[in-house]
Amino acid sequence: MPTVTPAADRSAMSQAQVSVRDVGKSFASRSGVAVVALEQVSLEIPPGAFISVVGPSGCGKSTLLLAVAGLERPTSGSIWVEGEEVKGPFPRMGIAFQRDSLLEWRTVLDNILLQADLRGRARSSHIERAQHLLHMVGLEPFASHYPRELSGGMRQRVALCRALLHEPTLLLLDEPFGAVDALTREQLNVDVSSICQVSDVTTMLVTHDINEAVFMADRVVVMTSRPGTVAGIVEVDAPKPRSHGFRTDPEFLRAASAVRELLEATGGFTR
Ligand SMILES: Nc1ncnc2c1ncn2[C@@H]1O[C@H](COP(=O)(O)OP(=O)(O)O)[C@@H](O)[C@H]1O
Ligand SMILES: [Mg+2]
């Protein structure tokens, strides 16, 4: 049956930078029983917004992020980025994962420039931007160091610079702070949130950390346990940039407890 999108929906799609519409995703398993990772997930990300997706382990957060990236195909529904249906990797996207995937034999600067190399772009025209990004994350003096000489938090900053080198319009972050210690993680929350704001990049952060989700986001999408679907959306109405003090702000506490309640009500804490 031909699908015709109603005019009202088309205008909603053109306003949102990312539009996830009734997305389902099943994986075949060896036992023959399909694993339903996502079920009827719908969400919209306005241009320039920072959205966190929070939910229990295994609820399909990474699957959703990969589907938005065009690296997994939904089994049902559709995903639209900047008005076009996602059918493969979206070139104006930056992505970073929990494992920083830095190449140990390349210097910090060369790891960032890998983004240009992989895209077949001249590195000479990206060096200035790479240095600017290093300056923004406080790592300018480390440009010629090797990854083994950096702490976990510093490595993640380099991975973020690499993800931002080509000035993406959409940044996808999958638990990028999961492997760093708690204090470094809080500092990265502050720094990355402000870099995203300055870069005016639309960002989708996947995390299982409620405080992190709220601290960084304009909007928190709470997912149910598997099969993951949207349990609810919590708006975080607070100006940016946000400093560490925001963690004790009444709006932060209200939003964090609203996220917690949604998780509790939808089985997010079940063993
Ligand atoms: N490539 C895959 N093949 C088979 N099953 C998968 C694959 N990717 C994810 N899954 C399954 O889908 C579910 C959701 O996984 P995932 O998206 O990684 O969850 P989360 O990121 O929320 O922890 C899990 O049950 C996982 O085992
Ligand atoms: Mg995951």
Describe the secondary-structure layout.
Layout: H1 7-15, E1 18-27, E2 35-45, E3 50-54, H2 61-69, E4 76-81, E5 84-85, E6 93-96, H3 108-118, H4 127-136, H5 152-164, E7 170-174, H6 182-199, E8 202-207, H7 210-216, E9 219-223, E10 230-235, H8 250-265
Parallel strand pairs: 3-8, 3-9, 6-7, 7-8
Antiparallel strand pairs: 1-2, 1-4, 4-5, 9-10
Bound molecules: adenosine-5'-diphosphate and magnesium ion (MG).
Adenosine-5'-diphosphate binds next to strand 2 and helix 2.
Describe the 3D structure.
This protein has 271 residues and is an alpha/beta fold. It folds into two domains: 14-92 and 169-271, Rossmann fold (3-Layer(aba) Sandwich), CATH 3.40.50; 101-167, no CATH class. It has eight helices and ten strands. The strands form two sheets. The protein has a six-stranded mixed sheet, sandwiched between helices. Helix 7 (210-216) crosses helix 8. It is globular, with a radius of gyration of 19 Å. The protein starts with 6 loop residues before the first helix and ends in a 6-residue tail after the last helix. Residues 27, 35, 37, 55, 57-63, 226 line the site of adenosine-5'-diphosphate. The site of adenosine-5'-diphosphate (ADP) has 12 residues, from strand 2 and helix 2.
Describe, in short, the structure shown.
The protein is of the alpha/beta class and 271 residues long. It is built from eight helices and ten strands. It has two domains: 14-92 and 169-271, 3-Layer(aba) Sandwich (Rossmann fold), CATH 3.40.50; 101-167, no CATH class.
